[in-house]
Amino acid sequence: MPETPNLDRLAFVDLETTGTHPVRDRVTEIGVVTVTAGAVARWSSLVNPGRPIPGFIQALTGIDDAMVADAPGFADLADEIRHRLAGYTFVAHNARFDYGFLKNEFKRLGQRFQADVVCTVKLSRKLFPEQYKHNLDSLIQRHDLHVADRHRALSDAELIWQFWRQVQARPGPEAFAEAIRFQLQRPALPPQLDPEVLDDIPETPGVYLLYGERETLLAIGNAANLRQRVLAHFKPDSREYRLGQQTQRLEWRETVGELGARLLETRLVKTLRPRQDADLCAWQLVEAGPGDYRPRLVGGDELDLSSGKAAYGLFASRREAHLALKRIAEANRLSLSRLGLEEAAEPANLGKESIGGHSARLMAALAKLKLKPWPYPGPVGIVERDDVGERQEIHVVLAWCHLGTAGNDAELAEILHAGARPAFDRDTYKLLVKYLDGKARVIELPDHRAP
């Protein structure tokens, strides 16, 4: 059995902040309980965030602007915090939140902060998989923890320490040690990749890119949890391990939610690997004469499902489109010459068939391939929020084409006034058709296209 993790120096940490985003928001209070060989030390301090504290945060924590007005800023406390945490395993509930905030606060000072991290949310999930909720309030109730001042930093840090002591005994020391070992295990990184980079990967939705030798793009992927997904490439038992070992550089871009991650991935794939879907096309029916409908091939740059014209199938090339139409014609005994596929003598029954009758059978044969028409009069915004409702993005869509994603009103106005619509994209269409099937909050937007 592997050696039991060294847990002789522990720092139980909790932060209160002005919001949930570690780059945009700031720390308002820090509480630390350090445990070393049975000796326990407690320390806490309010922190002046240098900005107003939102009202709902004040209501939640009880920390208001007046309380932090005369408190030291993070820069004044940085040396004290670093001294108290140096050499300790960093333990927190939803640890990437607290750890991410501290890393970013130090980063603003031009300093790097790094520690071994254990998350008690993950610990609870590992030890008690039968339980559904693992937030701190659930642990208080489930494990009969004693709380003095909930949502204050030092009090919550004490709660984490209480939970830690209880779970060492209840599941048993071996199960506890294995759960900790699982969190602290190091990925098998290739020698050319800086290990410090992995420490910065957030546990948020987004898109990641892996680069190999000479900046060759190895992979683009989306993830609900960037950190978990990227680290999977460096685990020897994973399918992506060989790809991970070729990686020399990686980058990532955070999004508010999973839809934003998938839309961004699609856009990056088309930008960085433009050959994909370059010849995308679909069939439309045009009326050559009264009741005489003939198929016409439309490219992705021309296809517009908001025009009222039906379109059928999405094909990767003109050749694929013609082969598919020929198979449909042969299966339904349609006239190949009327469809423009070849000039040939028709069976006797087709020669006697009326033009309208043939067109009706053609429409019926193509019905299964019909693309969903755009159901709105103009562009719409799909509103996506993060897990706690703090941040939102608006994905602007028109005729199943993603025009862009806005994080504020100015960006939204810029997208709407840009005018240009990208070429129709197969992956975006399939994603949005599924997503807009009653799942999303949609707002109709002004249409600035020329009449």
Characterization of this structure:
The protein has 451 residues and is an alpha+beta fold. The protein has 17 helices and 15 strands. It has four domains: 9-184, 2-Layer Sandwich (Nucleotidyltransferase, domain 5); 195-254, 3-Layer(aba) Sandwich (GIY-YIG endonuclease); 281-369, no CATH class; 380-444, no CATH class. It has helices spanning 55-61, 65-68, 74-85, 95-108, 120-127, 136-142, 153-169, 173-184, 195-198, 226-231, 241-246, 258-272, 318-331, 348-352, 355-366, 409-418, 426-435, and strands at 9-17, 27-36, 39-46, 89-92, 117-119, 206-211, 217-223, 249-254, 281-289, 292-299, 311-315, 380-385, 392-398, 401-406, 441-444. The strands form four sheets. It has a five-stranded mixed β-sheet with strand order 3-2-1-4-5, with helices on both faces. A four-stranded antiparallel β-sheet has the order 14-13-12-15, sandwiched between helices. It is elongated, with a radius of gyration of 29 Å. The N and C termini lie far apart (73 Å). 31% of the residues are buried. The mean pLDDT is 88.
